[in-house]
Amino acid sequence: MARGVNKVILIGNLGKDPEISYTPSGLAVARFSLATADRRKNAEGEWVDRTDWHRVVLFGKLAEVAGQYLAKGRSVYIEGRLKYDSYEKDGITRYTTDIIGNNMQMLGGRDDSSGGSAPRQQSKSSPSQPPDIPDDDIEEDLPF
């Protein structure tokens, strides 16, 4: 039986500095929002810009590197997988979609937060997927 494919590739700019936390077992977790932009023509033939926001989560060494080098406005390439989840808050079920990153490449120069295209540094996690963290190790109720 085929296992399927769950792969996401994004290039965008950080909406805020990464938030770094640690699980009870000491595993680093980085969370940040990533904006991607799209331009299309509307029914009247005018160009319209649209921005989509994505919640990105990195684990381990990759999370530590993100916390050290990424900042609001910085351009970055993220490769990973989609993870859907839900939780209840104030009696209301809320749904989340996260990008669990397993590859990251910082784009632009050392001090460039405007998003140049020259790669600066590449960081990869181990070839395996990031570990599945128990739900009680990660706070899922922090919307970006």
Summed up:
With 144 residues, the protein is mainly beta. It has one helix and seven strands.
Structural account:
This protein is mostly beta strands. 7% of the residues lie in helices and 52% in strands. The chain contains one helix and seven strands. It has a five-stranded mixed beta barrel with strand order 1-3-4-6-5. A hairpin with a 5-residue loop joins strand 3 and strand 4. The longest helix is centred in the middle third of the chain and has 10 residues, at 60-69. The protein is globular and about 55 Å long.
Write the layout of secondary structure elements.
Blueprint lengths: L7 E7 L4 E4 L5 E14 L5 E13 H10 L5 E15 L2 E16 L11 E6 L20
Parallel strand pairs: 4-6
Antiparallel strand pairs: 1-3, 1-5, 2-3, 3-4, 5-6, 6-7
- Biggest sheet, open or closed, and with what strands and sense? 5 strands, mixed, barrel
Strand content: over 45%
Distance between the termini: 37 Å
Structural class: mainly beta
Approximate helicity band: under 10%
Strand order of the largest sheet: 1-3-4-6-5
Indicate the radius of gyration in whole angstroms.
Answer: 16 Å
State the shape.
globular
Return the average pLDDT rounded to an integer.
82
| Count of strand segments | 7
H/E element string?
A: EEEEHEEE
Point out poorly predicted stretches: 113-129, 134-144
